[in-house]
Amino acid sequence: ETGVTQSPTHLIKTRGQQVTLRCSSQSGHNTVSWYQQALGQGPQFIFQYYREEENGRGNFPPRFSGLQFPNYSSELNVNALELDDSALYLCASSLGGAEGTQYFGPGTRLTVL
Amino acid sequence: QKEVEQNSGPLSVPEGAIASLNCTYSDRGSQSFFWYRQYSGKSPELIMFIYSNGDKEDGRFTAQLNKASQYVSLLIRDSQPSDSATYLCAVTGGRDDKIIFGKGTRLHILP
Fold first, then answer.
1. Cβ–Cβ under 8 Å, residues B97 and B45
2. Which of A75, A78, A92, A93 is 20 to 30 Å from A51 by CA-CA measure?
3. Does B45 have pLDDT greater than 60?
4. Interface touch B44/A101, C-beta < 8 Å
């Protein structure tokens, strides 16, 4: 069984740039959720994709967008990067939408300068 | 606004003792409750989930849920130095089905 993978592991961008983060879900899982975790905080829910459709969104502006592919892998795109976007971005996969138990990938550490 | 509250700690517990971690939640409609362990610089790792009132045991870990009091806890028996980490409580299944995490409790097991 393949676990959740994310790429890249680390990324440095400058303010105003755009970034794309990628996630491959665990084998057999059809749901991917994205979280932002600032230092010393719990993960904050960005959005969830279930069978290629957005299935819920947290309190993040529209410059945070995503998609899910037919193989259930997913991308998180962030436009017009701000300094406060510096955080650990976590992807979690699960089976069956919002009800499923979520398993996290290793995360992508984004630094915005 | 749904909230999940945890004491940030650090909670210091002697090796071999029982560590007790607590979490309260605001949405009475919440149905699923999770405990994750997160080592510094790593991603959260699922320890346990609980759906029904009462206790659920898995090895050295016991999750306790009291929906009337909107309270969920995690007990770690025979604490080991490797248990030193941040423990995140997560709640879902309420009005909007979003999963909400607490800020986590830092646990330090004293050798």
1. no
2. A78
3. yes
4. no
